[in-house]
Every structure is written in C-alpha cells, then in structure tokens.
Design brief:
Elements: H1 2-22, H2 29-32, H3 34-52, H4 63-87
C-alpha cells in the first residue's frame, strides 16, 4: 500500500506540474517541452523528499519509494499524452 500511495501522490503532482507548465501566459524553455520538464522536476522532488527523510526521526530514505514515485510520474505522463491531452484543452499548450 505504501508504494501505491507514492505512485498516486506523485502521479497527481505530475499532472498538476504539467498543467502549470502548459498554461503559462508567456512561453519559455519550461513550457516548450512540458512532458520532459514535468518528469525532471517531479523526479528530482522525489529524490529530495527521500533524502530529507534521513534527517527526520524514525524515517529513512528508500530507493523503492523513489522508484514508485517515478512510476507514478510516468503513468501520469502517459495518461496525459494519450488520454487527457486529446480530450481536454487544459492539457494543450496555449497557441496549439
């Protein structure tokens, strides 16, 4: 259940991150390749989240948790690309 929770939370994070990148008012290097940047931003956040747990009492970093985070991100980006983007304008960059 722990790994599933990681996948769901980071999948939602990826969807929200993607939406924020494609709906900027001004185009920039982040909004030009939102899928790539979403993956990078969210997976780095997952690494940072795992590393900071080493400084929290009774918590520790787990590679398996980060892998679950990345799987959730990849599933969300696949869902965006093939299901959500063709159906909903919020997932399409402005001007397209």
């Amino acid at each position: 259940m722990d790994k599933l929770a990681h996948m769901i939370v980071f999948g939602v994070l990826a969807i929200l991150c993607y939406i924020s990148l494609v709906n900027t008012r001004r185009r920039n290097f982040l909004s030009d390749k939102p899928i790539h940047w979403t993956f990078l931003i969210c997976s780095l956040y997952g690494i940072a989240d795992e590393l900071h747990q080493n400084f929290v009492k009774n918590r520790y970093a787990e590679l398996g948790d980060w892998i679950a985070d990345v799987l959730g991100i990849l599933l969300a980006l696949t869902l965006i690309r093939y299901v959500l983007k063709p159906r909903y304008k919020i997932f399409v960059p402005a001007g397209n």
